[in-house]
Design brief:
Elements: E1 10-13, E2 24-29, E3 39-52, E4 58-62, E5 73-77, H1 83-99, E6 103-106, E7 115-118, E8 121-125, E9 128-136, E10 145-150, E11 164-166, E12 172-174, E13 182-184, H2 185-194, H3 220-224, H4 239-249, E14 257-259, E15 266-267
Parallel strand pairs: 3-9, 3-10, 10-11
Antiparallel strand pairs: 1-2, 2-3, 4-5, 6-9, 6-14, 7-8, 8-15, 12-13
Helix pairs in contact: 1-2
The structure holds zinc ion.
Zinc ion binds at residues 188, 192, 198.
């Protein structure tokens, strides 16, 4: 029997002390590496979805634009039987599919902590495969985030945000004027949960808490970014995994080159 060496442990990040606000756990699993298998760097996010039902069959609920000075109460209704559970399953599985296994980080030659040994000698330098494990949990105190979800009445526009969703947020819409490029709110919002800000101007400025129109991109390429108004994945979206990689290995974020395709372990 071999021994399993959890040399990298588990990284637990909490909100306020972070530069970019992503709250999650991560682990780096290197005990399955070989000449063709990279190490897995997994970000874990657990969400408690709080089901919002009106007291009666219908009611109202404030959306993102709701303030004391400018109330924005929208008509909502009770979730239909099984509808909420179906929504939560759809949301978590499709957002995980969007972000999971899309990025690879190339281990720099200066780092030997991910070497695969053959006959006791370093033979291959393995890279990091970036994974996301996104699940709904049934208790708020077991979750990284609590997100309230309303069932807006059909045909009502309910403006959601990172902690308040409606049943419409797993449907696509179009937000780039004159373009057919689609946008899915839940891909974008889970990007925020991982720790990404808006695309900003300049393509990858990662601007947080900036909701001015320019934060969603100015050029077509910027607007097509999932952290703008589209659904394109870009290399800069791997930043949270690069930060985890730095925490585990000491190799700085900038030295983890990002790829959006598989990169094989390299001979040492
Ligand atoms: Zn946003």
């Amino acid at each position: 029997m071999g021994t399993v060496d959890f040399k990298f442990g588990t990284l637990i990040r909490t909100g306020p002390k972070l530069t970019y606000g992503g709250k999650w756990d991560a682990d780096l699993v290197d005990w399955r590496i070989d000449q063709s298998t990279n190490a897995y760097l997994t970000i874990f996010i657990r969400i408690f979805f709080a089901k919002i039902d009106p007291a009666g069959p219908t009611g109202t609920y404030g959306d993102n634009d709701d303030t004391a000075a400018h109330p924005s109460k929208k008509p909502i209704q009770k979730w239909k039987h099984g509808e909420f559970e179906h929504y939560v399953r759809n949301l978590t599985s499709s957002a995980q599919r969007f972000w999971d296994g899309q990025f690879w980080l190339k281990t720099p030659k200066t780092y030997d902590g991910l070497n695969y040994l053959a006959h006791g000698r370093p033979a291959y330098r393995c890279n990091l495969y970036c994974k996301l494990d996104l699940k709904a949990v049934s208790r708020a105190d077991h979750a990284h985030y609590t997100i309230a979800v309303v069932r807006a009445q059909d045909g009502v526009f309910f403006r959601s945000n990172a902690v308040l969703y409606s049943q419409n947020d797993i449907k696509s819409d179009q937000r780039i004027p004159g373009s057919t490029v689609k946008f899915w709110t839940h891909f974008h919002e889970v990007g925020h949960l991982i720790g990404l800000g808006h695309v900003g101007t300049g393509g990858r400025t990662n601007v947080h808490n900036d909701n001015r129109p320019a934060a969603y991109g100015v050029t077509a390429a910027e607007m097509q970014d999932v952290m703008g108004r589209g659904h394109a994945r870009r290399d800069w979206h791997a930043t949270p995994w690069q930060q985890a990689a730095e925490a585990f290995t000491g190799v700085r974020v900038a030295n983890w080159k990002v790829f959006q395709h598989h990169i094989a372990p390299e001979r040492v």
